[in-house]
Structure formats: structure tokens, C-alpha cells
Prior knowledge:
single chain; about 20% strand; globular
Amino acid sequence: MTSQTTLKQNAEFHRAYGRGKMQTSPILVTYAVKNRGLGCRIGITTSKKIGSAVERNRCRRIIRAAFSSLAPQVRGNWDLVFVARFRTKQKKSTDLAAVMQKQLAALGVIGKE
């Protein structure tokens, strides 16, 4: 998957929050909900509690980089929403990828390895 399809509409995010399954950690919160054959789409949320715009954008970049390493393992059509937490900005994408892999495996998005 070269370019990731993203969630943009508020309703798409609220569908994941309301109907999706959730996994949490001190670094990242992940919501996953099946979609109707639209492939794997991701959305990233960073609140102002995280810090300045520079810090929020860094969080989005490292979440995107962590997911891109796991994207080939995704089975099926999913809408995934990743919510950055305060500690996210202190981590590297490799640290985040390990946490993300555990969460996605627990949600059934990727196979357990």
C-alpha cells in the first residue's frame, strides 16, 4: 500500500468511536471497526493537550510511520482511528510500532505472530 486512504469526515471518526472495538495503552489508543469493502483506512487524532502544533504534527508523523510498517499485515477492510496520548511525542516510530502491533493483534486486525 503506497498511499494510505485516510478518514476525513467527522461521522467516520464517530462511527469508529461508537461502534468500534478499542485498545488502550499509555502511548496510544486504537479504535477499529469493519467497513464495507473500502480497504484499510486510517484516521489520526491529536488533541491540544499534547502540545504545540509542531508536537502534534510530529505525533501524527510517527503514528503514520509506525502504521506503514504494519500495513501489509492488515487483513480485511477496516477503519482504524489512532488517538495520540501525551507520551506519544516522546517515542520513536519503532517503539510505537510494537505497541500498535499488540493492539491491532488484540483487535483482530492483523494475525498474531
